[in-house]
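Could you help me review a protein record that somebody else here produced? What it holds is a sequence and that sequence's fold in token form. I need someone to confirm that the token line plausibly describes how this chain folds. Take the sequence as given and treat only the tokens as open to question. This is what I was given:
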Amino acid sequence: MGRLEEQMQELGVEIDTKRMKNLQGQAEKPQLGKKMRVGRSPSLSASRPPPRDELGIPDKAKRLKAEKLRAKALRHLKREARKGEADRHVYDLKPKHLFSGKRKMGKTDRR
């Protein structure tokens, strides 16, 4: 540290030796953790490919028309999704094995 003191005194800067002892202790410790990357440019991010739904239709006007048709086709599905539990249709399911081969009304209702 003596050489540094001499150089700084030549420049007209006085260094307190108590502070220098603290710096000397830090300099002796090896720096752990990540290494500093010197002289490297930041890596480039990969370019994103265009969406697959846009790849098939090159014309902008046709693409807009296809988008409108898609939205129109989805309306029914959206309406079904908004239905509440009470709005759903309950089908009258009749078990086939109880009704097949049976006669209607009267005495001969069983076979």
In short: Residues 1 and 23 are 10 Å apart (CA to CA). The helical segments are 2-11, 17-28, 52-55, 60-82, 96-99. The chain has a mean pLDDT of 78. The longest helix spans residues 60-82.
